[in-house]
Amino acid sequence: MKVLMVNGSSHKDGCTDAALNEIARSLKEEGIDSEIFFIGNEPMADCIACGKCRETGKCIFDDGVNEFIEKAKDFDGFIFGSPVYYAHPSGRLITFMDRVFYSASKNFAFKPAAAIFSARRNGQVASMDVINKYFSINQMPIVSATYWNHVFGAKAEDVKEDIEGLNTMYNLGRNMAWMLKVIDLGKQNGINHPENEHLYTNFVR
Fold it and tell me: What is the pTM of this model?
């Protein structure tokens, strides 16, 4: 079993990465492999609602989104991490997730997910609400921890001193591992996820 973790920061080795690495440590202890996917710090195009991905299964902009979509097929769980900007996740991560989930939602359905955040001061809980909505609309079980999934710090060294924050990340990894094992055990015993029909309306009668 494998967990794909997304670093949605512009800084590859910053606060968000420090938090994700603590989760990776916890997952490893539980026998779960993990990988951190850095979305980069180059300009990223927003979704333009062209609909081409519905025809091809890929986004027309090839800037790491398609690489992630293809990789996601082989992973069992996901963690999306972001710094907090103006009490909100990074615009870069939102752009990335808009395109990922719109073009390849089937790669994520029924796979557990969690959102984690780093901030100097505040805004983590509001940011968590934003990212969790991607999971809930895609039938993804949301993994929780022993406190809100966030760490404090202005730099990676600060995060490493946030004892409670790191403990939350560690526990999140353990809870993710537990959920993956429970789902796998269910599959082994013939308990599979439902095949739900999605009825689309626009309220026009």
Answer: 0.95
